[in-house]
Amino acid sequence: MDFLQTLAMLPDQLTRIEALMDANTKALNQATEQLGNTRYYEADAAKYLGVEQKTMYHYRQRGLPYEKVGRIISYLRKDLDAWRSAGKVHA
């Protein structure tokens, strides 16, 4: 195969590479969304943030989103990440 034939194949190869990259980006976005929707119970959330479990009460009082069903409190990972990114965790 000579240089011109190889050069002529490049657009098709680039199209295939772009399609693979798009598929990988979509899969990565789906995985990231699923991970963000992971629910942590209070002890696990405290460990994830690197604080004592009793500190989670204070964070809730200061606006950390949570869900309470009966006596069980849980947090979404994406909310914990946003809280940490906002600089509200000083572990």
TrEMBL record:
Pfam families, per database record: HTH_17
Domain Helix-turn-helix residue range list: 43-85
Tree of life domain: Bacteria
Name of the featured protein: Helix-turn-helix domain-containing protein
